[in-house]
Amino acid sequence: MILCSFPPAQNRPRRAAILDALARVVDADICILGAEVAAFEAEMAAHNGSAHCIGVNSGTDALVLALQALGVRPGDEVITVSHTALATVAAVTLTGAVPVLVEVDPLTRTICPKSAEAAVTAKTKAMVAVHLYGQPCAMDALLDLAKRKGIALVEDCAQAQGATYAGRRVGSMGDAGCFSFYPTKNLGAIGDGGAVTTNDSGVAERVRQLRQYGWDESRVSQRVGHNSRLDEMQAAILRLKLPDLDADNARRAAVSARYNAALAGLPGLTLPPVVAGTEAAHHLYVIETERRDALKAHLADRGVLAGIHYALPAHRNPGYATLVRLPPGGLPVTEALVGRILTLPIYPELSEAEIKVVVDGVRSFFGGTAA
Questions:
Q1: For position 367, what pLDDT does the model report?
Q2: CB 126 within 8 A of CB 151
Q3: Which residues are catalytic?
Q4: Which residue stretches of the chain have pLDDT < 70?
Q5: Residue 18 lies in a domain
Q6: pLDDT by residue (tens digit) across 20-36?
Q7: Which residues have a Cβ under 8 Å from the Cβ of 19 and sit 6 or more positions away?
Q8: What is the pLDDT of residues 207-234, one digit of tens each?
Q9: Domain region containing 220
Q10: In 3-state terms, the chain is what percent helix, strand and coil (to 5)?
Q11: What's the CATH code of the domain at 118?
C-alpha cells in the first residue's frame, strides 16, 4: 500500500546517525533543556531567518504559548479558519479565547484576508494564519490588516516549514510563528515536538517563561505557565534532519511537479495552485473533484491510500461546535471544499514507480491513458 506519508522511509536510512545523536543525550549531564535543545533553537532560528526560536512540547502548545505571550486572554476573540487541522482551533480554546472562524480563499485554501477583516471586532486580539498544506497565506494583506487593526498575527507553520513568501520564510513575518515536529511533518521528530519563532525579544522571553511554569532565570514564576519543553532526544534528532530540510522540500516540489504535469487537463479534476511569489513546502498534495469518494475507493483498489485533510471543518466537530463563532452567512466555501478534497501520497522518499502507480490510478479513473 502506498501511503500519503511514511516517516519510517526517512528514519530508517538515518538509523545509525540517529542512534549516535541519541547517545550524545544519554551521555550528557543535563537531560532537560540542555545542549541539544539550545543548539537546535539556534540552528532553526538561523534557518528560518528569525531572531529567536523556543522549543516546546508540540505544535499545539506552540500556538497556545504564542497566543498567551501576545496577550490573548479568556474572553478575547481570535480570528482563524475552520478548514485546518483541529489543533489550530483547539489551541485558541485552550487560551480561553473564542475562535472566530472565517472563510478560506477558494484557490489557495488559506485564510481569506477580506473575510478576516470583516470579522474584526473590539474584542479581536489576534489572528492565526494557517499556511495550509504548505502553501503560504497572503501575508502582505494579512500583515497590513493586523497593523491597521492593532491585532497580533500568528503564523501556523505546522505544514509549511521551509516555505517562503516574497523570499521570506514562513514564521519570520508575523508576531510569532508556530511549528510542529510531528513525525509526518516536513521536519519530523520521532515523537512530538514544536517550536515558536519570533523577532520580538519580549515575546521570546514570555514564551520561555510560559513553557516552564512561568519561571524566570531564578526559577521564580512571573506568570501562570505550563510544562511544555522540547525533549533533548527529539532536539538531537531534529538537529540531524534540519540540514536536509531544503533538499527534502525540493524533492517534494519535484513530486508535486510530476503530478501536475501528468494530471493536468483531466476533466473534473482541480490541481493544487501554483501561486506567484511563493514557494510552497508541498507538505500535502490536495486535489479536488466532485467524485472524491469514488476516486478514493478506486485508488485504494490499486494500492494507493489517499487521505482527506480534512473531512470535517472545525466547526462541525461536536466538541468544538458550541465554542466557535461563525459569520452570519456561515462558511459556504469551506463547506463545499471539504466534500471535494483528496490528498495524494507525497513525501521525499516516494519512488518513481510509486508515483507512476498513483498517476495511473488517477488517470484511469478519469478516463485517461497511463502516463
A1: 85
A2: yes
A3: 185
A4: 368, 370-371
A5: yes
A6: 999 999 999 999 999 99
A7: none
A8: 999 999 999 999 999 999 999 999 999 9
A9: 8-101+110-243
A10: 40, 15, 40
A11: 3.40.640.10
